[in-house]
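Below is how a single chain appears once it has passed through the pipeline. First comes the sequence as given, then the structure the pipeline wrote out for it. We keep one example in the README because the format questions we get most often are answered faster by looking than by reading.
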Amino acid sequence: MSCVATFRVIKMDASYPKETIFVQTDLSFNVVLQSLNELEKKGRLRETYGQSASINPIASSKSLFGDRHQDFARTASSVIRMCMLKATGIEDNLWPWLGNKSHEKNKKRCHFDYLFSPNGEHFSLANDRTTAERYWSRYDQLYPHFLIQVELGEEYGSEATINRMMLIFRNNFKEVVEITTKFTVTCERRRNYKSSVHVLCIVRDINQGVDKRFTEIVKTLMNPNFKVNDDRINAYVEQAMNVEGSLSVLFEGLEVAEEEEEEQQQQQQQQQRRR
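Resulting structure:
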């Protein structure tokens, strides 16, 4: 007799996280993007807010940056964060300080663009320092200064482009905040950098509906208490949560469940035809 795995309906109770942050460097991020595509295709996403911020170019505290790429990279990492905070509507009195001259020079260059909202008001991701810091501490993983330094390389004139994304599922999976960053830089000559930063923030409501495969996986990753009615698949889920570098174990387990469920449906259809 075949053992068929059936997923329990996930209830948004106190054990379910009200908010989960995913950044592009996470191992699970491709799965999260697939889930977003599923929600979009099923018409479950509704855009509510759109706004952006940009800086062009990043300014040094002096007329030029230091001799090493490291000096530019450290400033760039902080300025990109500043641009993200501006795009997400976080008030500038909550921003971390860059330095006496660098902070004010780049703050003046940071241009905000309002795109749309349901009531004409701007969206604000955080209204206090502690909450804001939780977001930017995750965002900082996308643009560490050493990554920018490596991407610049040794030769002058070559352009480095680093595009990254952060997704925040909020309000018990009823809202998703998408933060997309485009950063380009060229070291044209010694101590002279041509750069631009653009951050786009889109907020979407998530409507109720039947979750598809990747959305189920995302909820599994978000909720450590998630269980299925098959001990074998439970083992796959628990093992996948502890495996670094790959979600293949989790995929394998869920594929088994899908195949067995499909097989059972086919058998039921055949029995109905015979009747």
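The longest helix spans residues 248-274.

See the next section for the split statistics.
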